[in-house]
Amino acid sequence: MRQLSWTGRGVVAVVLAVVLVGSVVTGLALRASSADSEGGTSALPACADLAETRLGPLGEDPAWNGCLTDDDAAVRAYRYQCSGLRESLVPSGEARRADESAIVFLPDAGLVAATDQEWFRRPRNQHPAYLRTPFALSVPYRCDELRSLPHDGMVLASCDLDDVPLDLHSTQGCSEDGQVYTALGRTCSYPDFDLTTSWEQWSIEPPDLPGRNDDIVLESGPDEQWWAVPAAHRDQRCWTPPDEWDPAWR
């Protein structure tokens, strides 16, 4: 009996040792996992250090994913493909930079950059977080058109955008049934008496809309609302004062 008792105690000791070792290993694994998770955030650059530095290639420069504020809050980046990239230069006008380039906005940090160009904090007297749309945020860069580049981690708006206000989030496109539909934007203008009024026109080719058999797009107008409109008249809506739009264009 005594022999069996000592054997039993040995088994218990071994079991306890295994449990202890397992707990230590599990704890180390959890700590490593936590460190990896925190490392993903801490790997972001500080927002304060980005201005006047060059934006590197996608996949190599962590600033593509955002930056950290002074309070260690992560700020998300918004990505767009720019056609006809130009940079505004004072007082000489504009300098052409590339036929195509990707532009990254960090609106809550007041920063904007284009691939292989320097980060700018613009405008100096107005915080870009309060500007709702990308062409306003792209100062000092100019583009013929911007195409949204949704990326992992960003939740897209649904494609039920009719009569929804235009904003930076919805210009990233929309998603329905797992399918992503990108947005394409450009600046438009029309004469308003002796002034020229500019606005941003954004279009999304969504899935078929119920009750419509013609070719329909989701598009924003000068009222900064999304509407389901005929795709064929995008140019006319861009070049013509809204009061003069033909009813067939709407």
Overview of the structural elements:
The chain has 250 residues and is α+β, with helices and mostly antiparallel strands. The protein folds into 2 domains: 7-38; 45-249, no CATH class. The chain has 3 helices and 14 strands. It has helices at 2-42, 134-137, 234-239; strands at residues 67-68, 74-75, 78-89, 93-106, 111-114, 141-142, 145-148, 157-158, 174-176, 179-181, 183-192, 195-204, 216-220, 226-230. The longest helix has 41 residues, at 2-42. The chain is globular and about 50 Å long.
**Radius of gyration, Cα only, in angstroms?**
27 Å
What is the mean predicted local confidence, pLDDT? 81
What proportion of the residues form beta strands (DSSP E)?
Answer: 25-35%
> Which shape, going by the Cα principal axes?
globular
SSE string, helices as H and strands as E? HEEEEEHEEEEEEEEEH
Global structural class:
alpha+beta
N-to-C CA distance: 95 Å
Count of spatially separate domains:
2
**Percentage of residues in helical conformation:** 10-25%
Spans where pLDDT lies below 50 across 5 or more residues: 14-40
Q: Got a strand count? A: 14
Profile the largest sheet. Answer: 9 strands, antiparallel
Q: With helices defined by DSSP (H or I, 4 residues minimum), what is the helix count?
A: 3
